[in-house]
């Protein structure tokens, strides 16, 4: 069983599929995210969905998609270690702007729309349908760049395969999903349209007092009007993505073509996250690894140097007529061991966590938290 070597910093959120924690790697000190799913408390369908998410994450490698690093199962708990996006999700960004009564600039919305489309284009090229695109599943890194996450409802479509299952968040379900009709990649185009609409209006394009009313509005009514602040170009962009008939919606390539040229010219591909977790050599670990046998704990070289040093220091400090007893092997072993202990404590002190960042729990404590 592979140890993730992380410690919990704080809880980021809870959902029906599990709990998400911000963690710090105990070796390299960097932040990551661990999604914890209790397999013993979930149905066989949910278990299959969780394991499928891991399989899909392993295949994905794109700068605008949350990167997968590792996973393990301990005591019927599935732990998925992924990239940490420090900017939070788009839903939090929307709430922040709504609270301060400010609109998001159209240029920023176009930039995010372009990055979302690039990520979805990558998924579709690899025959993956996300099926749950919404503001809460789209994250931002420290540079305000998009990172699509939560691929738990994603599906890999085989050649000419058409899906009919109704999955996703009700507010963002497409009309064909509401009607239980066959659907394909165009459900993600509908999802992008809903996300861009929410960034402009701080609300979903369709609402309802009940699931039945919501479903009827999605399938039959037009979306709400956008604030007059935004140009006809972005209004038309959203309207085409929210076409009831999927055949009338653009595909992801056509969607990218509709994005303003200045947005695409100003785009700079972000640095891809690390392919693998880089382990920075810790002095504590290095010492303990080197101290795995008596030969390495008490090397001959150290013994010889210690012997010469002790004789020299004793000759200088003791009276000339006093006899210097030979240093026994046991004494040398004790002194070297004491020296190693001092080095270990010093190394730990120099590399310990800051008090405010010190993790509260370890990975083994997560099962007891939930």
From TrEMBL:
Which InterPro entries does the entry link to?
A: Kinase-like_dom_sf, NEK_Ser/Thr_kinase_NIMA, Prot_kinase_dom, Protein_kinase_ATP_BS, Ser/Thr_kinase_AS
Known EC number(s)?
Answer: 2.7.11.1
Residue ranges annotated for the Protein kinase domain, each copy included: 6-262
Domain of life, per lineage: Eukaryota
Q: Which reaction does it catalyse?
A: L-seryl-[protein] + ATP = O-phospho-L-seryl-[protein] + ADP + H(+); L-threonyl-[protein] + ATP = O-phospho-L-threonyl-[protein] + ADP + H(+)
Residues binding ATP are 35
Q: Does the keyword tRNA-binding apply?
A: no
GO MF, one term, reads: protein serine/threonine kinase activity
Q: Per the record, a Pfam family?
A: Pkinase
Keyword Amino-acid biosynthesis among record annotations: no
Name the UniProt key words of this record, in alphabetical order.
ATP-binding, Kinase, Nucleotide-binding, Serine/threonine-protein kinase, Transferase
Record's SMART domains? Answer: S_TKc
Q: If you read the UniProt record, what top EC class would you report for this enzyme, in one word?
A: transferase
SUPFAM superfamilies, per this entry?
Answer: Protein kinase-like (PK-like)
| Family the entry assigns | Belongs to the protein kinase superfamily.
The name on file for this protein is: non-specific serine/threonine protein kinase
Give the organism, scientific name: Stentor coeruleus
């Amino acid at each position: 069983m592979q140890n993730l070597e992380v410690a919990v910093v704080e809880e980021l959120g809870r959902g029906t599929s599990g709990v998400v924690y911000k963690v710090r790697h105990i070796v390299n000190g960097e932040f990551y995210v661990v999604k914890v799913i209790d397999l013993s408390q979930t149905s066989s369908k949910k278990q299959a969905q969780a394991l499928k998410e891991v399989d899909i994450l392993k295949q994905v490698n794109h700068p605008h998609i949350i990167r997968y690093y590792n996973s393990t199962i301990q005591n019927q708990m599935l732990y998925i270690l992924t990239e940490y996006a420090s900017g939070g999700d788009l839903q939090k960004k929307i709430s922040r702007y709504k609270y301060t009564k400010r609109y998001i600039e159209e240029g920023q919305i176009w930039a995010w729309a372009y990055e979302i489309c690039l990520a979805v284009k990558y998924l579709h090229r690899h025959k993956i349908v996300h099926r749950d695109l919404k503001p809460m599943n789209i994250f931002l890194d420290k540079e305000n760049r998009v990172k699509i996450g939560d691929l738990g409802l994603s599906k890999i479509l085989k050649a000419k395969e058409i899906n009919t299952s109704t999955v996703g968040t009700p507010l963002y379900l497409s009309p064909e999903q509401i009607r239980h009709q066959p659907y394909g990649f165009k459900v993600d185009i509908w999802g992008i349209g809903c996300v861009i609409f929410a960034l402009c209006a701080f609300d979903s394009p369709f609402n309802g007092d009940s699931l039945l009313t919501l479903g009827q509005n999605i399938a039959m009514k037009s979306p709400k009007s956008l604030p007059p602040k935004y140009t006809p170009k972005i209004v038309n962009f959203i309207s085409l993505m929210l076409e009831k008939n999927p055949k009338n919606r653009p595909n992801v390539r056509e969607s990218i073509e509709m994005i303003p040229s200045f947005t695409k010219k100003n785009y700079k591909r972000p640095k891809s996250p690390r392919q693998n977790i880089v382990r920075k050599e810790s002095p504590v670990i290095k010492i303990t690894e080197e101290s795995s046998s008596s030969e390495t704990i008490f090397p001959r070289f150290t013994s010889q140097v210690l012997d010469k040093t002790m004789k020299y220091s004793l000759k200088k400090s003791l009276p000339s007529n006093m006899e210097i007893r030979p240093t026994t092997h046991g004494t040398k072993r004790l002194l070297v061991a004491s020296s190693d202990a001092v080095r270990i404590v010093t190394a730990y002190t120099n590399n310990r966590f800051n008090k405010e960042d010190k993790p509260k729990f370890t990975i083994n404590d997560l099962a007891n938290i939930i």
